[in-house]
Amino acid sequence: MESSSLSLSGIETNTGGGGMGTNSTLICAPIMGKSIDQMFIDMAKAKEIGVDIVEIRLDYLSSFSPRQDLQNLIENCSMLTLFTYRPKWEGGEYEGDDSIRLDALKLAMELGADYIDVELQGMVDTYIVFYLSEVEEIGDLVARIQSTGADILKIATTAVDVTDVACMFQIIVHSQVPFIGLVMTEKGLISRLLCPKYGGYLTFGTLEEGVVSAPGQPTIKDLLDKYHLRHIGADTKVFGIIGKPVGHSKSPLLFNKAFKAVGFNGVYVPFLVDYLAKFLATYASADFAGFSCTIPHKEAALQCCDEVVPIAKLIGAVNTIVRRPSDGKLIGYNTDYIGAISAIEDGMRGSNKIYQGTGSPLAGKLFVVIGAGGADLVGGDAVTLAQLETFRPEDGMILANTTSIGMQPKIEETPVPKHALSAYALVFDAVYTPKMTRLLLEAEESGATVVTGVEMFIGQAYEQYERFTGLPAPKELFRETMSKL
């Protein structure tokens, strides 16, 4: 992992623990209340939603009487407890004398805490920040932490690139002792989602969106309901969406719900990727079986795939990558065009103003495609966005925005000003977050029929699902899921 600072600790335990479900990975919720009463309220929430263990962050308490408060917390918590008293120098809130802090953790063990989390400095009186580039370096740290007598090893680092996580996965899967390996920030999110696949002892999730004890923590609800963490095992196939940004994507919810519904042993996760070629070279095992590819990597995917189907070459973009089981080669497809064409056709058929015939509703229509880098390849004429403001060779045209202009968070942007939209009978926007972009709202106000990116998204997702799984797409489930969103 390049230039990644590490938090090194060992966890001492009074219990063997154990997960609930098809894997043994524990789900842990940090409890960060300012008072003991608030901590008990949060513990009750954690138990209700299915958490296995709570991490009680003593450093967040505004007032702390060690013996009284620890005894209260331990005796009255009906769940497994992990006590953490994190100092400022390790990213926590505690600023007092270190010996007092360590004495409190020792007391927690004496009083019956299931686990305590102690930093390496607290064990051997040295503080270490490492810059890692090789798995062997982490291996040396594992041996050093283990020599302190810790029952469970924990390393938390910060991802510079999503490929950094692969190093942590290798350490976890080869560890001879229980191991917690976390890579923070959004680029390290997959370390939290896929840890059951590699045998990670524990992963953290938050009770509420945005209330995190470390960067990149997902919510418990997402771990359980979106990613179905309980059902991820060593033989689970990994799929995901490659993009930058990628956090807005609804694909993980859509695909994971479909996988679960049909009993397909797969999980679909977000990959925040800077360099596509590096990502594909790093996650090259058969376990990483397929990817959706979105902005800004669709064009680069043409060069990164071993084979690309002709239509994707013609379009100049790949949005679906499948690893062929027989030889591991990456095959590039484009399902966007299927989703877009079917969405526009359905929109035209649903509007009597545009189409009343029986043949193809696209026949004879003049299309203006924003973002059509391959316009010359399909016999089109290229114009600039500025020229579109006065571009009106005829009325009743079809406008399709295939760029990210207007996507969250920049929802105030639009590729075409409102005054130019009166020339169009139908306006389609591939952006689906938000569903009604500024372009579509202004097109509707101008009298055009509008088609949202949600329709395209569902159509292309059908095709991706079938290529990923070899199964027919559960179309009703896809549509029902998207309608609830």
The assigned structural class equals alpha/beta
Largest sheet: 8 strands, mixed
- The domain tally reads 3
* Strand element count: 18
CATH architecture of the largest domain: Alpha-Beta Barrel
CATH class of the largest domain: Alpha Beta
Instruction: Write the CATH fold name of the largest domain.
Output: TIM Barrel
Widest sheet, order of strands: 7-6-1-5-4-3-2-8
Unreliable sequence segments: 1-6, 16-21, 122-135
Tell me the fraction of residues in β-strands, as a range: 15-25%
**Broad shape:** elongated
SS summary, helix count: 18
Mean pLDDT: 88
Overall helicity: 25-40%
GO molecular function: 3-dehydroquinate dehydratase activity; shikimate 3-dehydrogenase (NADP+) activity
Organism: Papaver somniferum
Protein name: Shikimate dehydrogenase substrate binding N-terminal domain-containing protein
